[in-house]
């Protein structure tokens, strides 16, 4: 602030007179006291020694506060240094003007120019007189009036001194801070320091009440932080930094009594304090209740909007010119398709034209009655169906509209709702068509459609009843239960009255007698469709179908089935008998030939014996193929599910065929994968049969070279609890022409079917294999090249065993020395069996019948029984059951081996279930008999241990 001013020669006459009196100091003193111009006198030390009343009125200070004090005490402290330097310049004579900023209690500020003259007092000491350059009104009265109005104002008012805050802002901006808001938000402690520089210097009582404190409480430098008015402080500082002179802000406030309030504060920079400091006058209004009301109103409005926008139905209101004044989301999105365009103030036609401009077909409501006008003209509510195309899609609305009035009863327009019934309309149309189709169907149907009134015990039915159901002449009431068989009628009434079948309904067959006394079979279906309050049926509907012809067909079919089963049973019996009749002589032939093999023979004799043995085995193969094929063609093969050793079965087949292969200089190789488990669940007999056919064919059609058998587990392609196996048989034989590969699995097919064919056989083997593979849940394929060899691969499904069952052993390894009872009615077979046993080192005892065998068991002790199944008087199974039941004490657990021509799986399973310990197929092979006897423990007991083994069959 510049306190010095250049000399100004343009003073008034009064000032010129004072200047002329100045050299005579003693005279000037009384003059200064009498004039109305503010004046004062400084001594040579710069202390105030005189001031007149106008000066005291100007500064609003008593004389006692000023006499003997520096001139700087009459100005705000912020300007004191400048005033002190200006006073020193005046006393030094370098300046004779002084611009003195003075202020009073009213809060106004005024810079007053004083002219100074030098003189001497009565003692002759130098002094300096100063007087204002113009007369001033009495500011004291104005200040009192301002203060009175300020404190009596009903609006909360307070004055804040922001001088120090402004200086701090200037310093902060000098340091490079320009975005004060961001700075204060990042440094809240700095904002608190700045808040202390904003001090309330005055406040009226209303403001004190606003903050719930007294006037002295509001003078606390920490007031704004205590009140939590950080937002107001920040906005005020930003206003000062921006150079603005006013502020309007809504700020939260925590009053001194702890109450939370919202304030609307209007603040303005007070003019006239540019030289004496900076003050802001503020007015605060408590808007807490207003905000609460507005928030409640906003919440209610949001709730209404949310409710309407979440409605499935459309909701709207229009003014009397059919312009929208409200529209919920459903109508905006589904009918108007307004997107982001404003809906209010627009009409349906506006949005229809908009859709057409966008290229959409829109015809909604154009062919319907103008329902808005109808409601406005009649001033009554109405319900309408309006439809048309909206964006090319057909839409039908169920519309309800009413007049809209205000509280004074003035008509504002219409209010309406619309529900999309497009699907409902389609369903109604479909229902009508369905009803028509049902009517046509019933009319075209030959069934009797009926309903039963449980309460009134009445039947009603369609016009299919006459004649058959005795329709009365009076109405569509029928009396079918009176024409029914009494037992059927009783069951029918029970079903009708008790709601049998529940929601699924009931069905039954009954017999009805027509007018001519002929009985008809009817298939009756019914369902309860109505119940009373206690859940009892009241109405049943249903239909009757005449199934007399079907019943006749069922009877004929049942008779045909019985005849077929009888024929099939006879066929099975015939096959079993044929198997027995053919195998029994072969058993004797092969048995004797095997016994001769160890006799001392010449080379010619041995050659003849070999030819006879091979011919017998070839004959046995042909017989087996024919019997198997015949059996499989008439009955689906059945399969056992017993534990067995797959690798052991494969080795058995390999060893059995090894001799014939060796004679042809053929090497049989095996490849068993490590993932093949020790035991599987399945039918070992069928598995061996597949192996015998495949490996036997490979050996037969290979002149020399190699036959390879591979067995692998397909873990990744197996369901849980099972294991799919891959069996492959490869040979280096003659191969098969490509044009014949598709027929190799057909029955009786042979590559060389002429009279010159080189390889014997029936051509049934591969057909049997295919049937067995499919029955075991597998597939089979063949790959062959003529002259290079053949590969046949098949997959087989077996059950998996996680661990070896307890009690399963590898055999008793008894060796020789068993005493064996041979029960066989055929003399040749009895001789062959006993000679084989002797040759193996055992001790046979023979019996020609079951009765004779029982007698011997009572007289002697045996280790096991080797017994034929098919014998006269008492067969082998009956004998076994008698032994197991204790007919001969002490032999209930004796092992019994069946010597039988019955070799089918289901037959063998039946044998095992009736007490047989194991079985040997006729004709009997000596090596197989030897292996079977290794399973027999000595002592005449061990049947239970044998059947606990995984593979109870020795072959």
TrEMBL record:
Keywords: ATP-binding, Kinase, Nucleotide-binding, Phosphoprotein, Transferase, Two-component regulatory system. GO terms for molecular function: ATP binding; phosphorelay sensor kinase activity. Residues 577-800 form the Histidine kinase domain. Residues 819-937 form the Response regulatory domain. Residues 378-433, 506-559 form the PAC domain. The keyword Zinc does not apply. It is an enzyme of class 2 (transferase). The modification 4-aspartylphosphate is found at residue 868. At low DSF concentrations, interacts with RpfF. This is Sensory/regulatory protein RpfC. It comes from Nitratidesulfovibrio vulgaris (strain DP4). The lineage of its organism: Bacteria, Pseudomonadati, Thermodesulfobacteriota, Desulfovibrionia, Desulfovibrionales.
